[in-house]
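Usage

Read records sequentially. Each one opens with the input sequence:
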Amino acid sequence: MDRATQSFFGAFLLLAFVPLAASAGKNPVGRIPDVAAFNRVRSYCIDMTELSRPEAYDVKGFVQVESKPKGLLTKLPWKLEADCTKESPDAIAKVSFRLHNKMGVVIGTPSDGRLPPMDSYALRAYLQVFDGESQKLLYELEAAPLDNPDPQPSTLPDEEPLTLLRRNATYRAFWTMIDDLKLTSRNHKN
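and closes with the structure output:
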């Protein structure tokens, strides 16, 4: 093997195993008041009754797309129930959205003193998971939107920016919860 090939394989192995080593002592990102109860969940629904009509529409679209094969919600080891009122799921997930005022300083301000235009608000998705019977909080997390979770951005034609931000923030919230669930179930077994 030549030197370049050895360097490539060495870098590849390093990149492949560093995330595994880093996750060994990792803590969950979300808040989990009762880890054992969180790990016992086997079915869930997503309650959208408290969302505005546009927010509910965006979350329904997210669920529709991400519950298809290879979608994000299929990676969650829980069965998704269609209706929270008719079914009796182990857990009820609620998503809400909040706009926060952005505050910050731009480093490297141009010499003329003008700042580049910025949005004055930042959207966050707030995910809460409650026990289906007792309504006890099992998990909560606040998530910022991902830059773009879709490998093909062209599949989201002409969406309003707020719609895209809500979808991406919801994606990150569920993605993080799935990672936290994997982490806690792995730690709970040890």
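Summary fields computed downstream for this record:
- The mean pLDDT is 79.
- The radius of gyration is 20 Å.
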